Amino acid sequence: MKPTRRTGIVSAMQQELSAVLARMPDEQRQRVAGRDFWVGHWHGHEVVAVLSRVGKVAAATTAAVLIERFGVDRIVFTGTAGGLGDGVRVGDLVLADGFVQHDMDASPLFPRFEVPLYGRARFDTDGALSAALGRAARSALALPAAVLGADAVAEFALHAPRVHSGLIASGDRFVATSAESAALRQALPAALAVEMEGAAVAQVCHDCAVPFAALRTISDRADDAAHVDFMRFIDRVASHYSAAILEAYFRSL
Ligand code: ADE
């Protein structure tokens, strides 16, 4: 008999979580550490859905509770990110193959970005789980208009999304100036995108040996225009993308 699996679904934004909950037929709320954890099923698979909250510490707490209190044996994280890499455009997706904390700097005691006492800056995601999530994204988003409607596609001038795979940088800062994103590009040339939580969840999952995958929809280019229409983009695009991808993922299991 296959062992029962329980997947933690972490959403960065409330709109995404609402779209997830709308697809769970039987969720029950449990409040722990000031957070609502929603325990139920999706296509017959056990899931626990929760909002990450914003920033690395909040996201680490959420991940630790998911693992220790709710016993999830893998975590899938969805949200938005600012694009850094060449050709990573608004409406594309970045599937993380690893994370780094761009604001970790204990130099000169340790090299810049290295997390002290771990001997590393980078925390990798799980290859098999990420590959499955990437397949789900490609199949779910082949036709964005089918997921979003033609109006949203036109409003945000969206194209068929590309799914890029690579490094994501996390830090406790919304990057909203061209100078800051240029500095990040120079310091971390491999980083495709920037957000505020993934590296923290990756580190907790590393500590607890729990497979982790993360997929972020690019909402902005982390430049001077980054805050424009961010909330509207989440409402109209990112939350629908996340739900459609997770739907395809759970169907495929
Ligand atoms: N999430 C989405 N866009 C972002 C940005 N520009 N900086 C940090 N986190 C983000």
Q: Could you spell the SSE succession in H and E letters?
A: EHEEEHEEEHHHEHEHEH
Helix content estimate: 25-40%
Strand order of the largest sheet: 5-9-8-6-10
For the biggest sheet, the summary is:
5 strands, mixed, barrel
The strand count comes to: 10
Let me know the CATH homologous superfamily of the domain at 79-252: Nucleoside phosphorylase domain
> Please, how many helices?
8
| Uncertain stretches | none
Share of residues in strands? 25-35%
Indicate the structural class.
alpha/beta
List the ligand species.
Answer: adenine
The CATH topology of the domain at 79-252 comes to Rossmann fold
If you average the pLDDT, what whole number results?
Answer: 94
State the shape. Answer: globular
Tell me, what is the CATH class of the domain at 79-252? Alpha Beta
First CA to last CA: what distance? 15 Å
Radius of gyration: 17 Å
CATH architectural group of the domain at 79-252? 3-Layer(aba) Sandwich
Tell me what the structure shows:
The chain is an alpha/beta fold. It has a domain at 79-252: Nucleoside phosphorylase domain (Rossmann fold, 3-Layer(aba) Sandwich). It contains eight helices and ten strands. A five-stranded mixed barrel has the order 5-9-8-6-10, surrounded by four helices. A hairpin with a 2-residue loop joins strand 3 (35-42) and strand 4 (45-51). The longest helix has 23 residues, at 230-252. 46% of the residues are buried. The mean pLDDT is 94. It binds adenine. Adenine (ADE) binds next to strand 5, strand 9 and strand 10.
